[in-house]
Amino acid sequence: MSQSQISGSQALMRAFLAEGVETIFGYPGGAIMPVYDALYDFHDKMRHILVRHEQGAVHAAQGYSRVTGKTGVVIATSGPGATNVITGVADAMIDSTPMVVVCGQVVASLLATDAFQETDVVGITQPITKWSYQIRSAAEIPWAVARAFYIAREGRPGPVVLDLTKNAQIELMNFHYEPCTFIRSFIPTPPIDEQVVSDAAALINQAKKPFALVGQGVILGNAENELLAMLEKAQIPAAWTLLGLSAMPTDHPLNKGMLGMHGNYGCNIKTNECDVLIAIGMRFDDRVTSKLATYAKQAKIIHFDIDIAEINKNVKADVAVLGNSKETIAAVTKQLQPARHDEWISSFDSYAKIEYDEVIKEEIDPSTPDIKMGEVISKVSEATGHKAICVTDVGQNQMMGARYFRFSQTRSMVTSGGLGTMGFGLPAAIGAKIGAPHRTVCLFCGDGGIQMTIQELGTILQENIGVKIIVLNNHFLGMVRQWQEMFFDERYSFTNMKNPDFVAVAKAYGINGKCVSTHEELDHAIAEMVSNDDAYLLEVRIEPKGMVLPMVPAGADITDVRLK
Amino acid sequence: MEKTLYTVIVFSENRPGLLNQVSIIFSRRQLNIESLTVSASSIEGVHKFTITVYTDEEEIDKVVKQIEKRIDVLKAYYYTDDEVIYQEVALYKVDTESILESDEIEQLVRKYNARFLEITRTFSVIEMTGHTDEIKELYYALDKFGVKQYVRSGRIAITKSTSELLSKFLSDREEEAKG
Fold first, then answer.
1. Of residues A126, A151, A183, nearest to B21 (C-beta)
2. Crossing angle, helix A478-487 and helix A396-404, to 10 degrees?
3. Which residues in chain A are contacts of B63 at CB distance < 8 A?
4. Domain A369-541 classified CATH 1.10.760.10?
5. Which DSSP string corresponds to B24-50?
6. Self-association or partners: how does it assemble (chain B) (predicted)?
7. How confident is the model at residue A73 (pLDDT cuts 50, 70, 90)?
8. Residue B20: its chain A contacts at CB < 8 A?
9. What region does B133 belong to: left with phi over 0, alpha with psi -120 to 50, or beta?
10. DSSP A54-113
11. Whole-number Å distance between alpha carbons of A202 and B131
């Protein structure tokens, strides 16, 4: 044994350091113990967050990644440890979140023998990862880790799973690390086609009613400034997908609101009135488009994306601008003529007024004693000077968070969009706070969702993480209840919940909190919550049968907006 | 939309698990793979999948893009029958006695450009290469004398272009790697 030889586990740690890893979310177990043993020597260089369930680790890594832009790192053991990360891995895949998950695996000689805590992790994760690879010897570790970070981060980001056999963690090897910069079978960013750039610019230049739909691709490409420059130069009104939220300040005059099922009235109506639809870093999800057969048929479609597989997947593009959004947007903007579309832009106003009068006004400033969801979100946003990070769980809390939270800086919305994972919120908020320790992180969750990962209050206790947890408690699985009311003849099948005393639960974990049920109590509790940087749980007893409106029913025309 | 038989050709790195990654893209869309042939390609270290599937152009286009998106896949292409030269091989087992009884089987073998691969005292094996319909035709003709076993391979195909499609891609990538 030569002096320079180190174990596979130490090699993993050194590879992490070489990749700039500062934070690891994880949970130890049998088949990953050598890695944890090595971590013991590196704990002053990398912060390890001990979660309470592996699902919490992946969602926390997602929250961390979404606010920092860095790759989230997760360590879990084999078998159940690995299967517990699956939901988060699938979530990261559909929401394009860069993440490297290292799972322990039984020793290579025991593979395929149904050994204790053995699962075919690569087999399970292949369809829900960008790359999934089993490392069977220590010598492969530097190569595989370098490749994992490169793949997770480059192009359209996503999760990578490394299935690390126990023998590979223990074996000795000569460590030499080279970051991956090239994989011949993987072209992360397609080259920009100048002709296409000119075609796109020409279409926008002749547009009378251009409309931009902005997705997370703008944030992932760090193209917020380029986007703003484009929109302002050609005076293009813009609307946002759920994951595109916060890429542009809420109060920017060209920001017309959110798209889709619970989006803003005008945005959905105008989708079917514009003459050129400019989709940027978004994938025409069904929650955005609703019925495809009647979606934006009148418009020429320009689709900016980094992922060629998204082009023509749901909506056929007349011009597809492939490439990194930061570069493509800038390239197109260069060829744009300064333009004004005053009449078109102000045509959104009448819809905004209708929506305000019929939905928003009462939602944020109720005339009745019951507290409303929009009111809570609006007040919390206000109390943080609209500078906080908004994390949501899934359901009504999420849609209300998206609708009523206001954003002044990018990477401020953390939510499970594509997968719609209940239980995402609490661990994601923990990860977000760790990634952005100097910002206020407000989590909005329902009484249902928080109970799916409520064990992560333990992580907050142990690591002293100052997240503001706002439980919108209506004693219902609110969104399902809303659908039952609207589409299932008010047959409330198993959506009513008998809940614990959330404030007492929080208190048991050393977290201060309050339960409120009047407007005045709410105001005082919010003031108390934001008065310091400690964790806080605010349980708000909201009206039991609140609805998220407007709503476009699933499968209806996108213009079929119901205001009540 | 009308369904056409497409030939999908996939070039990948030779890494375990690729077949699964490719096949789940079809199964997720409930596309039945008609035939599948996997083997080394003419390029060292590169594997080649030849897959046939009935579907429409819109769908096959999406499928091929999804396949190519897999990290270890180098390139994926799709073709209609008129764009490729393709072939299958079939083996038929018949009783040797029925060959001896008349010259009809021999006539069929000549007519279909087939050949005897093996003749034993009890059974004989006939081999034929061709397109699916020709192979099936010979099967039905032979079956009048009783075919004991019959097996048909998946399709292999080459394009009508003069060079291996992948070569340019690989040389371009090599250039890029050098920077």
1. A126
2. 100
3. none
4. no
5. HHHHHTTPPEEEEEEEE-SSTTEEEEE
6. Dimer of large and small chains.
7. very high
8. 123, 126
9. alpha
10. HHHHHHHHHHHHHHH-SPEEEEE-STHHHHHTHHHHHHHHHTT--EEEEEEE--GGGTTT
11. 49
**Set of chain A residues whose Cβ sits within 8 Å of the Cβ of B62:** 309, 312-313
- pLDDT over 80 (residue B164): no
Domain ranges within chain A, ordered by starting residue: 6-173, 194-347, 369-541
Residue of chain A minimizing CA distance to B27 = A127
Q: Which residues, listed in sequence order, are joined to residue B8 by a DSSP beta bridge?
A: B51, B78
> Which residue does chain A place closest to B177, by CA atoms?
A182
Considering CB atoms only, which of B12, B24, B71 is closest to A130? B71
A140 phi and psi, to 5 degrees?
A: -80, -15
Write the pLDDT tens digit of every residue in A521-563. 999 999 999 999 999 999 999 999 999 999 999 999 999 999 9
Homologous superfamily of the A194-347 domain (CATH): TPP-binding domain (3.40.50.1220)
Q: Cis link prior to A550 (omega < 30° from 0)?
A: yes
**Phi, psi (rounded to 5 degrees) for A256:** -100, 0
For chain B, the domains span: 4-82, 86-156
At residue A229, does pLDDT exceed 70?
yes
CATH level 3 topology of B86-156:
Alpha-Beta Plaits (3.30.70)
How far is Cα A208 from Cα A469, in angstroms, rounded to an integer? 45
Q: Which run of H or E residues covers position B7? A: strand B4-13
CATH 3.40.50.970 describes domain A6-173: yes
Query: Is the model's pLDDT at A1 over the cut of 80?
Result: no
Instruction: Tell me which residues of A are annotated as active site.
Output: 54, 116-117, 166, 479
- Cβ pair A309:B28 closer than 8 A: no
Q: What is the ipTM of this complex?
A: 0.93
Cβ–Cβ gap B74/A131 under 8 Å: no
Q: Quick one: fold of B4-82?
A: Alpha-Beta Plaits (3.30.70)
CA distance B42 to chain A (A): 17
